[in-house]
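Researcher: Good morning. I'm working through a list of sequences from a screen, and I'd like to move beyond sequence-only analysis. For each chain I'm collecting a predicted structure so we can compare shapes side by side. This is the next one on the list. No need for commentary yet; just the structure.
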Amino acid sequence: MRVVTWNVNGIRARGAQVLSFLDEKKPSALLLQEIKATPEQVPADLHALADRYWMRWHGAPGGYSGVAILLAKDVFPEEPVFEIPPIDFETRIVLARTRTCTIASLYLPNGGKDFDAKIRFLGELGAWVKEEQARGPFVLAGDMNVARYALDVHPSQRDETAMAQRPEERALFEAVIAGGAFTDLTRVKHPDDDRFFTWWPFWKSAKARNLGQRIDYVFTNPSLTERLESITLHREFGTSDHAPLEANFEG
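Model: Good morning. Structure tokens for this chain:
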């Protein structure tokens, strides 16, 4: 099973890139964030994949936020149950319950416009994942807008007063990880890599120079963590300010 999370920064702008990624990489599950579209605004070429993928697009009018899950029918032959968790706001989370596991796509608030809302959501998320992980194999992945450690930020951007690096949000993020009994899969395979970044600002050729931060994650609870084979960052793919992050599991 190959799970990919990707903040596309606008599905209408990057629909063709998503199609290309699906054709080239063939993930079992593709989790998207910041689609910035209602289901009706998603490009028709993506809706046309319904013969190959179970899909749930969760977005609202206004071109803001939004998440999605696409599950390959050859890997998940039984139709999943898609749900919007009760903690959702601003169309930031959607999950799929399959016969073998639960998979959730998450887009945490940046916090720049409303830091209190980010803090509240992190607190609610911590309580919710504690309940969810007890139900069985669980994948939580997405753009979480928190860099766990200084290691996850390029030295030129390290600043504990900056968004995504503040001590209070990092502490709540660690509580989410602990509550979900989660493993940060990137650090299983790349424990000391201080240049493993998933997001880059749109200035000074930051992506080309790899001046970024690691704010996208794939988390799993123990029953799936032990099946992890690899973590791959597709940094070269697409024009979003985030790169697709792939976790490959045995079986």
